[in-house]
């Protein structure tokens, strides 16, 4: 008679006290990543970028968000393993998903998403360097070699694919729904950052029911599905995301600060030749964190022997001084419309302003899917086991529609004038 061998337990070596989950446990393998210069630099990249200029308690970093996302990714894998042994989930698969979640934001730089939206295109960076997901993947491959982390090339390919949400042949499609779900955008990354952001913003009423959503998730037809009774909690995820984007992430003053920071950084990047940083195999670009802006006054003094560069930096010093005194670019106009196809250049032509005076963002329930509920599948308890689109549920049909909205802010970037 064969005796069933117990599933080997993950050996956790270190615990972190966390504001959301009380305790986050990391394995020895994960701690080898955390205890590197590259990962520790995430402490110097604010999760919400310029939002702290308006919402003063929003000073949390990408560091703790990555730890929290790793925790949730491991939890989701454990739930699926315990509930569906037939999936054959191995401890190594769980570890690789956790690792991908841990390093998924390694490529974020100063200003977080603002860098990808405003600075990277202006620098003319290659496609691999324009987005934080691809930058992070390249950096982690380099770290794996540098610190002898022990990942094979196939494992590194899987980790990078999990970060980008692009299914990799030879691996189950449902695995790519966990961290960066391109099918419907319901993933552990979103569950962590919405709850973490809401807590630091003081919006405690926004607390998502993460456990209710995750604990009875099942794989049906090679996709992660949820019990129908979790539909209200899932709807709350996307509605909360919508409100955060409209009221916080794209607040008129936040956009004003981003405009000012962009104007400074574009000059600094040209003077200091940031393009060379991104071309270097040493990945020195990772040092461009949120502290860089405060080096401007020092740089002006340091470049005393290079008067041309010094003169260029002095041109943006008044903008830096205005930031310190909270004299932000004033808002001239705010526009909301459902035509999300217009570019900044088209809007600038219509409004007869400079394209650099405009920031425009599309705000919806998700970043790219008009109705994510059509792509989230649910199952009925005691039913046939067949999954149905969440949008077919009566309670979802009765919910109000949340169309994509293009939010446009126009600013006056002219210098302040003193009046007597």
Structure, described:
- With about 425 residues, this protein is an alpha+beta fold.
- It folds into 2 domains: about 10-250, Hypothetical protein af1432 (Orthogonal Bundle), CATH 1.10.3210.10; about 255-330, no CATH class.
- It has helices at about 30-35, 35-40, 60-85, 90-105, 115-125, 125-130, 130-145, 155-165, 190-200, 210-215, 230-250, 250-270, 275-280, 295-300, 305-325, 345-350, 395; strands at about 10-20, 20-25, 220, 225, 330-335, 360-365, 375-380, 390, 405-410.
- The N and C termini lie far apart (about 95 Å).
Features:
420 residues; alpha+beta; Hypothetical protein af1432; 4-stranded mixed β-sheet; 3-stranded antiparallel β-sheet; 11% strand; globular; disordered N terminus
What is this structure, in a nutshell?
This protein has helices spanning 28-34, 37-40, 62-83, 91-103, 113-123, 127-130, 132-146, 153-164, 188-201, 210-214, 231-249, 252-271, 274-279, 296-302, 307-324, 344-351, 394-397; strands spanning 12-18, 22-27, 218-220, 223-227, 331-337, 358-363, 377-379, 388-389, 405-411.
Domain module count: 2
- Summarize the helix and strand pattern as letters: EEHHHHHHHHHHEEHHHHHEHEEEHE
Please indicate the percent range of residues in DSSP E strands (runs of 2 or more). 5-15%
| Count of DSSP strands | 9
Number of helices: 17
Name the shape in a single word. globular
* Quaternary class: single chain
Runs with pLDDT <50, length 5+?
1-8
Question: Main sheet: which strands, in order across?
Answer: 3-4-7-8
- The CATH superfamily of the largest domain bears the name Hypothetical protein af1432
Q: Briefly note the CATH topology name of the largest domain.
A: Hypothetical protein af1432
What composes the largest sheet? 4 strands, mixed
Rg from alpha-carbon coordinates: 23 Å
């Amino acid at each position: 008679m064969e005796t069933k061998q117990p599933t080997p337990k993950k050996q956790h070596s270190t615990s972190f006290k966390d504001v959301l989950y009380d305790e986050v446990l990391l394995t020895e393998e994960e701690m080898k990543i955390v205890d590197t210069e590259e990962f520790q630099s995430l402490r110097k990249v604010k999760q919400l970028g310029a939002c702290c200029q308006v919402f003063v308690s929003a000073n949390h970093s990408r560091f703790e968000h990555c730890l929290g996302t790793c925790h949730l990714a491991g939890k989701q894998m454990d739930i699926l393993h315990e509930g569906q042994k037939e999936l054959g989930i191995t401890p190594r698969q769980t570890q690789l998903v956790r690792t991908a979640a841990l390093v998924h934001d390694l490529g974020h730089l100063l200003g977080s998403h603002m860098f990808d939206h405003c600075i990277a295109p202006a620098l003319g960076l290659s496609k691999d360097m324009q987005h934080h997901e691809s930058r992070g993947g390249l950096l982690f491959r380099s770290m794996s070699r540098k610190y002898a982390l022990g990942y094979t090339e196939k494992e590194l390919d899987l980790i990078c694919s999990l970060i980008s949400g692009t299914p990799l042949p030879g691996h189950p499609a449902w695995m790519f729904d966990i961290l960066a779900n391109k099918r419907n955008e319901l993933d552990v990354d979103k569950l962590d950052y919405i709850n973490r952001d809401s807590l630091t913003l003081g919006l405690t009423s926004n607390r998502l029911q993460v456990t209710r959503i995750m604990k009875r998730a099942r794989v049906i037809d090679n996709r992660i599905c949820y019990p129908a009774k979790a539909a209200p909690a899932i709807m709350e995820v996307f509605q909360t995301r919508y409100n955060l984007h409209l009221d916080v992430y794209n607040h008129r003053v936040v956009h004003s600060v981003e405009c000012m920071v962009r104007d400074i950084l574009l000059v600094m990047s040209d003077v200091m030749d940031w393009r060379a940083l991104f071309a270097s195999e040493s990945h020195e670009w990772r040092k461009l964190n949120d502290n860089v802006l405060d080096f401007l006054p020092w740089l002006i003094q340091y470049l005393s022997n290079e008067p041309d560069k010094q003169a260029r930096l002095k041109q943006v010093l008044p903008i830096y001084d205005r930031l310190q005194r909270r004299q932000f670019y004033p808002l001239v106009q705010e526009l909301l419309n459902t035509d999300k196809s217009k570019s900044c250049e088209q809007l600038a032509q219509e409004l007869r302003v400079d394209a650099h005076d405009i920031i425009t963002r599309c705000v919806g329930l998700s970043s790219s899917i008009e109705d994510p509920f059509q792509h989230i599948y649910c199952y009925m308890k005691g039913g046939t086991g067949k999954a149905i689109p969440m949008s077919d549920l009566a309670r979802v049909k009765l919910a109000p529609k949340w169309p994509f909205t293009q939010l446009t802010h126009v600013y006056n970037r002219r210098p302040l004038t003193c009046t007597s």
